[in-house]
């Protein structure tokens, strides 16, 4: 037995189940319920019935491994096959498109980057590749490019908060392998001009990746409801690949996402094979190895439970909330919504007012919110139930803004960390 005064040692004996559960409840005392109405961060709640169906499906497969889908769990293969077919239909992908279910947006994106990198190496001889991303592209493009030895050319912010297409064209160079657009990016909720970026990609024979991790299962339904959403899927000719997260607005439990490639011929640069292993030949299209089957089971269940009309209902409620929030915020002097939000979230900044002090005030009143920078802003991410509390939030916001204007509520020092994430 090791004795160490400072660190916890491995338990010598087990505890009773009830003790453990009590301890966990105590540990969770300060946690938020992810579906709380006051939680305006990335909660992705599809309502109580959706959450229950997803949970039941998840629990059914809680001990199953996706990797064993051909042998032990053929049901999981069915879920993957069905969901891939549904997504190809939703994203207007060609018949010969290929798709891979992954553990999350990051895995979908790293696979797209790796596939583009290896194709460019083989077909164009590019050995020092780089990608060009808008300023608002999710930071995983930087992280994963770092892992893969790919350089990143990141645009500066643009006046309408969308990708700066002219800047992207000016940045194209002989080592470029990919252009990226997001629909929408995390900080802003403003969809990038995907068709223009894809047009550039075609003109310069480049890979175009659409990061639809957030909007993939919200924007198609928003369009069908008549909302103004620009083209963003495989209907746009130059789009090569798309990432979309089931564990966001697809309402499956984490972690589950999909990477769709326009042409199955690209898969040869995605997969990895090793044939010198004493357990047999190894082949995988994923970076992850063992994966819980719960996430894909919950996604399959939710897609079938909601169907197109159910997704219309939850999406309509998100949009109703977004419009109510935005209208109320725009009516408050000194606050400004950034760009024209088209997704489930949006950000607002302040003129002549410290927005971080406003954020502080809102958090003190019990709201969970995100903070953005460049410019400093408050970011609200809505689910289908949030329209119910728009008036309460706006009343609190007005009160906090008044307090900041009057000087009774001040920003904390720069050394303090604002916001939660
Ligand atoms: C726009 C966007 N892309 C990619 C990702 C990465 O997804 P994940 O956290 O599932 O890896 C996120 C995560 O929030 C995102 O918002």
Automatic annotation (TrEMBL):
Keywords: Aminotransferase, Lyase, Plasmid, Pyridoxal phosphate, Transferase. Its cofactor is pyridoxal 5'-phosphate. Transmembrane segments: none annotated. Signal peptide: none annotated. It holds the Pfam family Pyridoxal_deC. InterPro entries: GrpII_AminoAcid_Decarb (IPR050477), PyrdxlP-dep_de-COase (IPR002129), PyrdxlP-dep_Trfase (IPR015424), PyrdxlP-dep_Trfase_major (IPR015421), PyrdxlP-dep_Trfase_small (IPR015422). One of its GO terms (molecular function) is transaminase activity. The keyword Transport does not apply. The keyword Transferase applies. Belongs to the group II decarboxylase family. Sphingosine-1-phosphate lyase subfamily. PANTHER family: PTHR42735, SPHINGOSINE-1-PHOSPHATE LYASE 1. This is Aminotransferase class V-fold PLP-dependent enzyme. It comes from Aliisedimentitalea scapharcae. The lineage of its organism: Bacteria, Pseudomonadati, Pseudomonadota, Alphaproteobacteria, Rhodobacterales.
